[in-house]
């Protein structure tokens, strides 16, 4: 077991596949740093491999809201608070990454698409030690946050796709309503552009 590991994601919202990734990394290290990408509007840029990632509808939750969801889910999965921490991880502004996370950690990744490959290259170019937990095809990827946001927007069942604590947090803070409104606005704009 290694001392320090790092994972990262947007967690918009945190779902069960995110938890699979986080917990797989946690099993390999004593202390895990969970990096939240797109922590704010200043550290959010487009990528040729994921052009929607910078849109408002793809980033409906604030850094603080995602921080709270992760803490709740880690408690739900009984990970002691002393064994993890949550930090900003500005993957879109790689020049700032090492101002937030330790250089001497192992950076755990799951690779499923071109955006993951781009992130892998970003971290490799920073000279970081990367361990790939798995490689999956898009078909094998399973649940995605964009799918969950779409389910929320179209009144489909979604709560079984996220930890119970996340479902409770989203609904008790009415964040599901914000997600629905932003996703519906995006779909309406898309439909208008087709006319």
TrEMBL record:
Q: Which GO terms describe its molecular function?
A: nucleotidyltransferase activity
The Cytidyltransferase-like domain, residue ranges: 7-148
- The protein here is known as Nicotinate-nucleotide adenylyltransferase
Q: Which Pfam families match?
A: CTP_transf_like
Taxonomy-wise, where does this protein's organism fall, top ranks first?
A: Bacteria, Bacillati, Bacillota, Clostridia, Eubacteriales
Q: Is Transferase one of the keywords?
A: yes
Query: Which domain of life does the protein's organism represent?
Result: Bacteria
Which InterPro entries has this protein been placed in?
Answer: Cyt_trans-like, Rossmann-like_a/b/a_fold
- Which UniProt keyword terms apply here? Nucleotidyltransferase, Transferase
């Amino acid at each position: 077991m290694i001392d320090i590991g790092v994972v990262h994601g947007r967690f918009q919202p945190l779902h069960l596949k995110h938890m699979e990734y986080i917990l797989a990394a946690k099993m390999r290290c004593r202390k895990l740093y969970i990096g939240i990408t797109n922590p704010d509007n200043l550290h959010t840029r487009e990528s040729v491999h994921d052009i929607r990632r910078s849109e408002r509808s793809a980033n409906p939750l604030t850094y603080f809201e995602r921080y709270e969801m992760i803490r709740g889910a880690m408690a739900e999965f009984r990970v002691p608070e002393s064994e993890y921490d949550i930090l900003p991880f500005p993957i879109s502004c790689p020049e700032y990454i090492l101002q937030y996370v330790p250089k001497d950690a192992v950076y755990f990744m799951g690779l499923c698409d071109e955006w993951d490959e781009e992130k892998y290259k970003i971290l490799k170019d920073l000279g970081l030690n990367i361990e790939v937990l798995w490689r999956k095809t898009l078909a094998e990827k399973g649940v995605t946050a964009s799918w969950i946001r779409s389910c929320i927007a179209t009144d489909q069942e979604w709560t079984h796709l996220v930890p119970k604590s996340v479902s409770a947090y989203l609904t008790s803070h009415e964040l599901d309503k914000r997600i629905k409104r932003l996703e519906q606005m995006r779909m309406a704009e898309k439909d208008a552009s087709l006319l």
